[in-house]
Amino acid sequence: MQEERAPEVGKGRPRTIEGPVGPLPLQDIESGDENRLLTNVAEFDRILGGGVVAGSVILVGGDPGIGKTTLLLQILPHLAEGPEKVLYVSGEESPRQIKMRCDRLGISSEALLILPETNLEEVLKAVQMVAPVALVLDSIQTAFTSHLTSAPGSISQVQEVAAQLMFYAKRSGTPVFLIGHVTKDGTIAGPRTLEHIVDTVLYFEGEKGQAYRILRAVKNRFGSTNEIGVFEMTDAGLTEVTNPSAWFLSERPQKATGSVVVACLEGTRPILIELQALVSPTTFAIPRRMANGVEGNRIALLIAVMEKRMGLNLAGQDVYVNVVGGLRIEEPALDLGIVSAVTSSFRNRPISPTTVVFGEVGLGGEIRAVGQAETRLKEAAKMGFQRCLLPERNISKLPPIESMELIGVAEVGEALNAVLG
Q1: How far is 66 from 61, CA to CA, in rounded Å?
Q2: What angle do CA 133, 112, 219 make, to 5 degrees?
Q3: Per-residue pLDDT, 232
Q4: How far apart, in Å, are the Cα atoms of 346 and each of 277, 278, 300, 301, 411?
Q5: Can you give the pLDDT at residue 134?
Q6: Residue 19 domain-assigned?
Q7: Across the chain, how many H-helices and E-strands are there?
Q8: pTM here?
Q9: Helix (H) or strand (E) holding 68
Q10: pLDDT tens per residue across span 207-261
Q11: Interval 97-124: pLDDT, tens
Q12: How many angstroms separate the CA atoms of 374 and 387, rounded?
């Protein structure tokens, strides 16, 4: 007889694949499409890659009051069919508060069950009794497991609760939504390993005082990343914005200097955004370089290219760059728009309101090709733009676009002469 320690319940990753144990050749593994549940919110389904995958764990983060709870309460009832149930576990609000919120949003569903609980073991007991088709935990920082003695919200508690819920999701095939608080710098509170445990990470962007919200997928194992969905916060909850380009350009000035429209790509979605620049003489020894919606270091780099390759004297000028609408753009196709807007403001010459630009600018002043140019052009043509400045190498691979003049440029000086006339 030899004494052995019994394995603790819930520890270790459960085996979810039936069949022989051990490594399998790739060609012997059966493949198939994931079973996806539709939420009846097209923007949310598109961000996830076509719907909610069974057994997936989805982390939703954002500032307090930005709409995380509202969105999940709206989509939960649509995941249940017939006698199926969905479970909403609240660690921050009482059932009465959630009921008041649902009445305001017009949500009345017998399939939606509310459980005010923070103990993970009690939550799992309720899950076994109800067997819901979807589970929401609001929030991950308020839940705790009695197996650990640390306080709720600590690194060990957040990590262990997320891991146990991930094991449950994979065993049962039930999708689990986790709501997470964010820190001052906008990241999920708790360890970064929490984002590695889950399958999908969604971030809400935008200000609480604004009517529009942007939901961005920064990680998705079942679809493309950097997809965004645009929502409007109304008295009836979050509603979809089906044409975000029209919204971003709705208040664009027609003959103002320093304003240009850029064709960007967020995930698989083309979006036209207005980029504004303001150049004014500085009163300080060191000129300011401020950016909102784009990386500040990228602005400094492009200004250096303009000074070196174009001969513009910006050393005594403050430069401010802003992406209208609260959107944050990181792709290099924005470079040509930044250079055009800064030059337009510096020379006090407006850019034609029917012109759209995109392209990457290199340190040598060359305009480099970008991906999916045809998708960007079709979006611009749909919005009524008649002229487009784009990298010369992209034109050779494009079919003609009706009602749009394509101007290929190879270097920065040539591009600015074309855009400013």
Answers
A1: 10
A2: 55
A3: 86
A4: 9, 8, 16, 17, 19
A5: 93
A6: no
A7: 12, 20
A8: 0.77
A9: helix 68-79
A10: 666 678 888 888 899 888 878 888 888 888 888 888 888 878 888 887 889 999 9
A11: 999 999 988 888 888 999 999 999 999 9
A12: 14
Q: What is the extent of the structural domain holding 283? A: 247-420
Tell me the C-alpha distance between 12 and 4, whole Å.
17
Q: Do 140 and 121 fall into the same domain?
A: yes
Residue 287 belongs to some domain of the structure? yes
Q: What is residue 251's predicted lDDT score, i.e. its pLDDT?
A: 81
* Number of domains into which the chain is organized: 2
Which segments of the chain have a pLDDT < 50? 9-18
At 43, which amino acid appears? E
Q: Which two tokens stand for residue 100?
A: 């008041």
Reduce the DSSP state of residue 85 to 3 states and report it: coil
Q: How many angstroms separate the CA atoms of 190 and 182, rounded?
A: 9
Which DSSP category does 106 fall into? Answer: T
Tokens of 328: 């944050």
pLDDT score at 41? 87
Check residue 9 and give its pLDDT.
46
Residue at which a domain ends, from 209, 227, 242: 242
In 296-372, alpha helices (H): 296-309, 335-347
Say whether both 236 and 271 belong to one domain: no
Domain boundary among 242, 260, 289: 242
Pair 75, 205 in one domain: yes
The CATH number for 204's domain is 3.40.50.300
Same domain (yes/no): 235, 254: no
Q: Which two tokens stand for residue 225?
A: 């990343």
The predicted pLDDT at position 12 comes to 42
Range 288-305 burial, b when 16+ CB lie within 10 A, else e: ebebebbeeebbeebbeb
